[in-house]
Amino acid sequence: MTHHTTYPQAIPTVAMPAPGSLYPASVEQAYRQAGYWTDETFAEFLDDAASRFGTQEAVVANRLDGQQIRLSYQELNRAAAQRAKQLLNVGIRPGDRVIVQLPNVLEYLIEVFALWRMAAVPVFALPAHRRSEIEHFIRSAGARGLSTCQQHAGFSHQALAAELQRDYPDLIVLLHGEDAGGATQPPSPTASAGLESVDLPASHALAMLQVSGGTTGVPKLIPRSHADYLYSVRRSAEICKLNTATRFLVALPASHNFTMSSPGILGVLYAGGTVVFCADPSPSTVGALIEAEAITMTAAVPPLAMAWMNILPALGFDLSSLEVLQVGGAKFTPQAASRVAETLQCQLQQVFGMAEGLVNYTRLDDPHEVCIHTQGRPMSPADEVLVVDDHGQEVPAGQRGHLLTRGPYTIRGYLGGVDAGSFNEEGFYRTGDIVRRREDGYLVVEGRDKDQIHRGGEKISAEEIEDHLLAHSLVKDAALVAIPDAYLGERSCAFVLVAEDIAGDSSQHRSNAEALRAHLKARGLAAYKIPDDFRFVRQFPVTGVGKISRKQLRRALADTLDAQRSNTSV
Ligand code: OOB
């Protein structure tokens, strides 16, 4: 995956899937006939919402300058239309992919709706992404625009944008924030300022590129259509019983699929409720906003939910408006799940989803036992779920197996085509998750077969980090594996086969670990992807065909951790 590029470079021309090519024609027809898919698109989403909900409050959010703003549906719609015209004027064209990398601020919401309004395609980067990821999105999506801010959480996005623009001179940087001016390129004199000239997309056309947790090399781009994504939004809003009284706190990164659509920002706006953006997810900020804004619902990944449960009760905020806490993105242990009601005085809803599609929910009227012990059941009656053994044979209810799925909002291929590793011949997506399906149809997540590390809510691709490690002269081979962690669920340990024979020498070990950390940082990796731990080894355990056996590495790690634990306890 490492490309030895000389700069400056042209942004690659990447063909996007044509409308109607994302699903087989017969499948599309069936989903339309059943009413799952409609003609609605995200280009008209806000217009429709504004005509239904007019002056009701749509959003409460800080701008990048720190000022809190409240907008009605009409005002939000007007702001997005205005911004869409600006985007046309700076040279963004319908169909262009634009990477959106913004924190939880008002500008994010306006930007995404503005892009949809002018039939452009947002690429949903996360604030934690760095050069490595953003450049990959530019190259693999042929993205012409990068919408970002000056700085956030101690990182200069402006400097990164400048660097990328130097390396890709055609890149249009849309820089938000104080005195940022909105764009680094002067308005194009030829662009018409009118939105009237923009042809609205078809509902089966590509609407956005979501980003996978990344299972091989680098994050894969997930092509979602208007019709499939909107169906998941409508159905999620229905299951979660959203209405005009819903006040949803956006505490997780806004652009994540969970936050956008399960039911998230889009579900709430579809139902006429209010989204309240939280600048940071710390218990004090969250508690203050729940009280001040009478929040009824919010969503967290397990480590965040745990921090809230541990700290919020002692802070003394009035949390009585809170009805539902959604937890998803990684396994929430029954032990933690059972503490939600008593610590936060609200109901728990478990959400097991993936940016590729399938989302499972526990229902609001499910028995307590189901909400604590399962990760829910598929949202749609048309979701097809298979639980199979290693040979692809379905296993009986109650037994563990690989989860495969197909349905009205699950992709049939990543951007760039179908790879047989991720999709079977019948179009089922191989989720990589190991689950048990109970007799009642509810799923319990048991683990996964892909080598993805789930560090808190963040997913780390072992192969991606290994590729970067291998680029260092010290490294002969590398394998990243997960270490169980009481707080994060998992953290990462890099096993490294080094060129010199230093295994066992602890001072060398420390300086090598430091050197590799610095190396990864210099390659522009997000901080959460830098291994938490390094082990230097003389050889790797291997499988029958000579591949590194991660299973054995994990076991070795578990053994040494056990040994350490029993040493410290005596
Ligand atoms: C969500 O989406 P992604 O694409 O970041 O990650 C998907 C993967 C799943 O394949 C599974 O391995 C894991 O994250 N996962 C869970 C889980 N929810 C997701 N594992 C155990 N228990 C859960 N509740 O993470 C995502 C997308 C939409 C809604 C919610 C989460």
TrEMBL record:
UniProtKB keywords: Ligase
Family annotation (Gene3D superfamilies): 3.30.300.30, 3.40.50.980, Luciferase, Domain 3 (2.30.38.10)
Signal peptide (residue range): none
SUPFAM superfamilies: Acetyl-CoA synthetase-like
Protein name: 2,3-dihydroxybenzoate-AMP ligase
EC number: 6.3.2.-
Pfam families, A to Z: AMP-binding, AMP-binding_C
